[in-house]
Amino acid sequence: QQSTYTPQKNSTKYRVDATMKTIASASNTLLLLISSCGVGSLTNAFMSPQQSTYTPLSYQRNTPLTHLPSPSNDAQPQSSSSSSSSSTCLHLAELSGGITEAWNSYLDALEANPLLVKSITAGVILGAADLSGQAIQQAIATNNDDAATTSELSNNTSNSVDIARFLRFAFFGFILQAPWNHFYYQILDGALPPTEDPFTSTTAIKVVIDQFIQAPIFTVIIFGFLGVLEGKSLDSIKEQLDEDYVDTMLANWKLWVPATAVNIAFCPPILRVLFLNVVFFFWSIFLSLKLNKD
Question: According to the model, what pLDDT value does residue 98 have?
């Protein structure tokens, strides 16, 4: 029979009943709002879901963007804004496809001829870095308050590119920087094989070897190599080392210790020299300004 029990306001059953009534009232109010606004998509959200017909595309290297829809002659005319948006999306997709194709071609060439591709890449990047350094020097000279210095620089070097200096840095990247690091990383990884976990004692040891044994030696070689290409005497090169070597190494460690840690910990061995070349672009600007400050 129907119970005549009435729960007390302070009892647990009363609080549960009151909560359920509140939830039911809120649900009814929400459904009334949905129906009054005519939002069919929200109403459909409470219905049982239909099976999706979407099939995700699997990524493959060197796969052209053939899945893009082609325009149909029977399509309904679109507004100018919609047509412009579709055209923009299509251009972006084509650009993305072109970048992907170029990257895949670079990887294929890197696998086929690793030393040659790394050398060409380093030559291009370091040559561009020197051009950037020259542009920075010219900007500084233009803003110099010394009228005599500004006038002299504007007559001699402003609005001109030092082609010989550009070629020296490009040649340095092609003939020395890339081959040195190519064989250096082969030796380093052969002695201390890469680990799956990036944060290991092996990674830390390799960073220490790279920055506190290899880097000081290679920096001396850079000063000597570029000095010889510039036609400096051995005494002039030694004088420049005495003057700039310590400052150069301190700046080197500020940049290259974290960069080397990222390179060794996360980059695949075949891409390590490429990552190094990208960072070396900014380092070469510093070297270009340091070695040509006169």
Answer: 87
